[in-house]
Specification:
Elements: H1 2-26, E1 31-37, E2 39-54, E3 57-61, E4 67-72, E5 79-80, E6 85-89, H2 92-117, H3 124-149, E7 152-154, E8 159-164, E9 171-172, E10 179-183, E11 188-194, H4 195-198, E12 206-211, E13 220-227, E14 232-234, E15 237-246, E16 258-275, E17 280-282, E18 285-291, E19 297-301, E20 303-307, E21 312-317, E22 324-331
Helix pairs in contact: 2-3
């Protein structure tokens, strides 16, 4: 009895499989199209980057020698005039060095003068050797004077102190910045553009700028003013630094603010445009598939122009606008 039931089940399964095979074999797949209308409009290509608001000019001040800071005459926010003494380090040791060098020079000069007065008592070689000692002592005095002059730091530009790193009494390390002075009026935007986008960026191009510190609805106009000719590598990516000038500076903007920048690198108005994913290529000829009212699809050769934002591309010939171009084909 059990064997009979098992045989019936197997027969039923075989019938179902065979019936399903012939059913699906005879069934035609249903094709569905996703389309987009070829429309006229304004097509824009932008390069979007981030940057910072920086001073037009800034100078980091440092001493060329090490020592103990005696005076620093300005603090953050103070205005500084070019040529003003900004800071000084202790001169005690250097003053002693200069006095010793001057005393040594005096002794060497007196010896040389004595040799010249008693010229017959000294050989030519001896007089030349003493002359060299005088010159050596003169060089030591000059070096000591130079070091002494380097204990005083002067402002190289008119500006405002935006950073101070040290207080009187602390030790100064040579060539380490103690103060930063900047021209904070009319600041500029600095940004890094990846090499894939820099070919589309040019001097005088317009840009729209927003600041992280302000509402995204507050938009500022800017213009590309400089492009570095040489690249820099940041985390294994090649970048080019650019500078942009704000068209209308605003008092609420502060140096150091972060920015989002959209540079308008190209624009065409009243052109036919379609999604770039609708464009196909065969034998170096671009074409699209257009869905007709009877659900038939027609292949139309086209030529394209500007590739813009949002994956849209300009169609310069082949379409007149209003066509439903196929962007995706699905079968069910």
């Amino acid at each position: 009895m059990f064997k009979k039931k098992k045989t019936y089940v197997i027969l039923i399964l075989i019938i179902v499989i065979i019936g399903g095979f012939f059913y699906f074999r005879g069934r035609k797949p249903k094709i569905q199209y996703e389309t987009s209308i070829a429309q006229k409009g304004n097509l824009t290509r932008t390069v979007s980057i981030t940057g910072n608001l920086d001073p037009q000019v800034q100078a980091q001040l440092s001493f060329k020698i090490s020592g103990r800071l005696e005076n620093i005459n300005f603090d953050v926010g103070d205005k500084v005039t070019k040529g003003t003494i900004v800071a000084s380090i202790s001169q005690d040791t250097l003053s002693d060095d200069l006095r010793q060098a001057q005393a040594s020079l005096k002794v060497q000069k007196e010896k040389y003068s004595l040799m010249k007065r008693r010229s017959n008592s000294y050989k030519h070689e001896e007089k030349q050797a003493q002359k060299a000692e005088v010159e050596k002592a003169e060089a030591a005095v000059a070096a000591a004077q130079k070091q002494l002059s380097e204990t005083v730091l002067y402002a190289p530009i008119d500006g405002t102190v935006i950073k101070r790193n040290i207080d009187p009494g602390e030790n100064v390390t040579a060539n380490i910045s103690i103060l930063t002075i900047a021209v904070i009026e009319n600041p500029i935007i600095e940004a890094n553009v990846p090499e894939s986008d820099i070919v589309n960026v040019a001097i005088d191009q317009k840009a729209e700028v927003t600041f992280d510190a302000l509402s995204p609805n507050e938009k500022f106009e800017a213009q590309v003013s400089e492009i570095d000719p040489a690249s820099s590598v940041i985390q294994d990516v090649v970048y080019y630094r650019i500078k942009l000038k704000l068209t209308k500076p605003d008092n609420q903007l502060k140096v150091g603010m972060s920015t989002d920048i959209d540079i308008n690198t190209a624009q065409k108005n009243n052109v036919i445009m379609i999604p770039e994913r609708a464009v196909q290529t065969e034998n170096n000829q671009k074409y699209v598939k257009v869905l007709k009212s009877d659900n038939a699809v027609k292949k139309i050769n086209i030529q394209t122009g500007l590739s813009g934002d949002g994956g849209m591309v300009e169609v310069t010939s082949g379409l007149s606008g209003g066509e439903q171009v196929v962007t995706l084909v699905k079968t069910t």
